[in-house]
Amino acid sequence: MLNNNILPRPDYKNKLLKIGFNKDVVSYLLQVYEESKNQCCKLVGQLVGLSYRDQIYSIWNYFIENVVYQEDFGNDQCLKTPARLLAEGVGDCKSYSLFFASCLHCLNIPFVFRFVSFDNATDFQHVYIVACPYTSQQIILDAVEKDKFGVPIFNYARDFL
Question: How far is the C-alpha of 46 from the C-alpha of 6, rounded, in Å?
Fold first, then answer.
């Protein structure tokens, strides 16, 4: 449904963070979001007029078809802007979250970044987006979680601390 001819242009500048503490990653992710939150506005502008759920599902399908998960290696954390993520086609949960956040921002759909841990309550290990949080219509956008066939699961997040 989304047209690739309206992709944002990446600047290919590294958004690199020499990791120290999780609070640094969280702070830098929010900073990169503020700098790049309008990058997907033309792309998702094609979805205006659809219900919010259809808009979100269209973004999800587009993303799943065009981006592959690849974890950062070593201690450096690379946060790709939405444009760069789409151009390169690979990224991790931080870059995934920046893309989804930009799309939802451009569609005026409320969302939050959810930072979670699975085995240590003091350190975040993962981040994803929750659209329409704290409502009965909330939708989870965590493309890292996959079914038994390796396909990302729409509106699903595993248990966390």
Answer: 9
- Cα(91)–Cα(55) distance, rounded to whole angstroms? 22
Angle subtended at Cα 147 by Cα 73 and Cα 137, rounded to the nearest 5 degrees? 100
| Distance, CA of 117 to CA of 149 (rounded, Å) | 25
Q: How many CB atoms lie within 10 A of CB 115?
A: 19
Residues 6+ apart with CB under 8 A from 49: none
Whether the predicted pLDDT of 101 surpasses 60: yes
Instruction: Report the alpha-carbon distance of residue 3 to residue 7 in Å, rounded.
Output: 8
How many Å apart are CA 14 and CA 52, to the nearest integer? 32
The whole-model pTM stands at 0.91
For the chain, helix (H) and strand (E) counts, in that order, are 5, 7
pLDDT at 159 over 70: yes
- Flag whether pLDDT at 10 surpasses 80: no
